[in-house]
Prior knowledge:
The protein has one domain (2-32, 51-97). The two termini are 20 Å apart. The chain has helices at 2-9, 18-21, 92-97; strands spanning 56-60, 68-70, 76-78, 86-90. The strands form 2 sheets. A two-stranded antiparallel sheet has the order 1-4. A two-stranded antiparallel sheet has the order 2-3. The protein has 3 helices and 4 strands. The protein is α+β, with helices and mostly antiparallel strands.
Amino acid sequence: EILEGVALHLGLAEDWFDDKVNFGNSILRLLHYPPQQTPPPAGTVRAGAHEDINVITLLLGAEEAGLQVLHSSGEWLDVNPPAGALVINCGDMLQRLTGGVLPS
């Protein structure tokens, strides 16, 4: 249903992504990054800058500090979702499927 919403947002038919993602290889990974109990040592990085290769990434409970997105201006912006929010990242495959309209 998420891709249906994306299609409608882009002014496409609700089922526009169906033939591109149905019956393909599908990977679902559940990852848990527990909150850090103590501040990390200066200069350390928990996860460096990267793009996700997949279609979408769903981040539930992404309420801990540190998540950032790169704005088109080149500035890194903090992501501060409200409690219980679902953060949806566009991956490289969605960028390609949308012709770059939705950047990874």
